[in-house]
Amino acid sequence: MKRRLLDNWKQPGDIMMFGYIAEEADRLDDFRERNTGREIILPLVDRVLGKGNCKAMVERAGILLPMQFRRGYDKANCKCCIKGGEAYGSLVGGVSLDLQQARDDATGKRLAYRAEQQFKAHLAYSTGALKVGGEWQLVGARYSYDYAGNARLLDRYSRINVSADYRLDREWTLFARANNVSDKKYELVRNYAAPRASFFVGVRYQQK
Length: 208
Fold this sequence. Notes:
The chain is α+β, with helices and mostly antiparallel strands. The protein folds into 2 domains: 63 residues, no CATH class; 133 residues. It contains 6 helices and 12 strands. The protein is elongated, with a radius of gyration of 27 Å.
């Protein structure tokens, strides 16, 4: 696809400028073989500037390097780049801890179904068309109240969910998800059991 786009774009006599760096001599030779007779301007190669030189110039100019470089990766291809998506992956995660004391101002009682502690952690890895992830949730004890106002304790629980998406093309995605993979028994509402381990797959369409 990339070659076809270039062939459709260039016309006889066009001058093309590329940001090939000194370490990309093999890529440059391949491009020249496929584009004989074209005038190519190569400012970085002509000055024997490699990736390290370019990064140093950017930093000296006071410009912040892309996040992937600052995280220690050698490449920083954007996610929208087809080649970048195929060759490199990204790992994203996070944790959160919520501490609260939700109480009724009039009675001083804890609000129903409000845990005082909640912990969540998630991690996702994507490479090319594939994205996989998981989440872990810990919820502390909660109270429910019957019609007479008597408190009933709901036990704390934990839950692990995992998911995977595979992009078939720009608009269609195949996905799968498994909820509560450890098959825990718990209640979100008293006397109403939450679903045990479950798994489902599907296809998602999103017009671009």
